[in-house]
Amino acid sequence: MKQEIKPATGRLGVLVVGVGGAVATTMITGVLATRKNLAKPIGSIAEMATMRVQSGEEKLIKDIVPLVNLNDIVFGGWDIFPDNAYEAAMYAEVLKEKDLNLVKDELQQIKPMPAAFDHNFAKRLNGTHIKNAATRWDMVEQLREDIRKFKADNHCDRIVVLWAASTEIFVALSEEHKSLEALEKAMKENNTAVVSPSMCYAYAAIAEGAPFIMGAPNLCVDTPAMWEFSKKMNVPIAGKDFKSGQTLMKTVLAPMFKTRMLGVNGWFSTNILGNRDGEVLDQPENFKTKEVSKLSVIDNIFEPEKFPDLYGNVYHKVRINYYPPRKDNKEAWDNIDIFGWMGYPMEIKVNFLCRDSILAAPIALDLVIFSDLAARAGMCGIQTWLSFFCKSPMHDFEHQPVHDLFQQWRMVKQTLREMIGETAPSYLD
User: Fold this and answer.
1) CB hemisphere CA count around 100 (13 angstroms)
2) What angle do CA 243, 248, 250 make, to 5 degrees?
3) How far is CA 391 from the centre of its chain?
4) Helices 246-259 & 405-419 angle (0-180, nearest 10)
5) Which helix (DSSP H) or strand (DSSP E) does residue 293 occupy?
6) Domains 12-242+358-419 and 246-353 share a fold
7) CA 5 to chain centre
8) Which runs of consecutive H residues, i.e. helices, occur in 73-135?
9) Residue 284 burial by CB count (10 A; 0-12/13-18/19+): exposed, middle or buried?
């Protein structure tokens, strides 16, 4: 049945947590340059991808469903450093100065609001532009006021909040996360051990009716309390952890091995990364959060309980090493030990010299655009169809996440077709 989708009229405010970070400034610069016809939105599914409709015609996705026009987006956000977006982008050294100068005036106008920050959740960062909050509840109230003020000052009709900040330390799911009542109680009692800053941003966004996207692997909206709240407020939530580099490759290669019924003995993955994200992940407590996210992919795709002869004993190791000279130019190595007919061993080696923020920027933009679409379509809670963009797709306790990139892509197209009241073609699309 065709869904009633409100038109994408008016302005969309995009509030980014970590608006001065490498991913955020790269995304914003690219959008601003695209608006001036100085760049193409390469890597953006929302802007460049096509799909086949029931008539057999192939159309751009943005011509099938009503997506926000890039000209109607207003950027803002929070950061632990006071630099405007131009200064922050220069510091990040992802984009060349000549490219930043194309939209320098616009970037200089984007100045961060003081961030909700707790040094204990990112010990390698020493923020100077931060809020003074007596409790986590007070932190939430300040963030809610920021959202309301930005929306009013910039004449926005809608808001989306995106976490593009650093990975927080590992937090295990606890009783305080299992109901909305328990979470609110923990916030008011200032239980800082179980309520992270990212949870405060998520709660504030949902309370203000704004979709929230978790771009890092933090425990945040992937809790029963947040699911309950997002449904209560009729707000979409998405995440987690942008699937940009090494894990993207895994979600392509692993389905290939499984489809061909080739066995895997081991998969060793290591990275070097020199940006602020790499520095934060050099802290063991923060790396554990990322490690859990990156390790979850293989088992889910291989289904070792179903295929024990092929995948019952896979040794999977992930490492991330902070190496400042590389800055944002991450290098990833994978050594995959596979076996084939009669158990004979083979090896595959992958060396991916990537640019972390160049890959993540269009993912962040797509999650914003599609979350806004979901909100206008009246969708709420976990947006499973956006798993395509995430390393550790959010799911409830009754379901298993889908990691296979091609299955995830079909989920995207199926959801979009359902929105316009079409069925999938009988052939494999």
Assistant:
1) 19
2) 135
3) 8
4) 100
5) helix 284-302
6) no
7) 24
8) 85-92, 97-100, 104-108
9) exposed
The pTM for the full model equals 0.95
- Report helix, strand or coil for 49: coil
Q: What is the pLDDT along the chain (429 residues), one digit of tens a residue?
A: 678 999 999 999 999 999 999 999 999 999 999 999 999 999 999 999 999 998 889 999 999 999 999 999 999 999 999 999 999 999 999 999 999 999 999 999 999 999 999 999 999 999 999 999 999 999 999 999 999 999 999 999 999 999 999 999 999 999 999 999 999 999 999 999 999 999 999 999 999 999 999 999 999 999 999 999 999 999 999 999 999 999 999 999 999 999 999 999 999 999 998 888 888 888 988 888 878 777 778 989 999 999 999 999 999 999 999 999 988 899 999 999 999 999 999 999 999 999 999 999 999 999 999 999 999 999 999 999 999 999 999 999 999 999 999 999 999 999 999 999 998 766 555
The CATH topology of domain 246-353 is Dihydrodipicolinate Reductase; domain 2 (3.30.360)
Q: Note the Cα 65 to chain centre separation in Å.
A: 22
DSSP for 355-378 reads -HHHHHHHHHHHHHHHHHHHHHTT
In whole angstroms, what is the distance from residue 134 CA to residue 239 CA? Answer: 29
Domain 12-242+358-419 CATH superfamily: NAD(P)-binding Rossmann-like Domain (3.40.50.720)
Tell me how crowded residue 224 is: count the other CB atoms within 10 A of its CB.
16
Give the type of residue at 239.
G
151, 210 Cβ separation under 8 angstroms: no
Domain range annotation of the chain: 12-242+358-419, 246-353
Element spanning 272, H or E: strand 263-273
Structure tokens at 91: 């510091």
The angle at the Cα of 360, spanning 170 to 143, to the nearest 5 degrees, equals 60
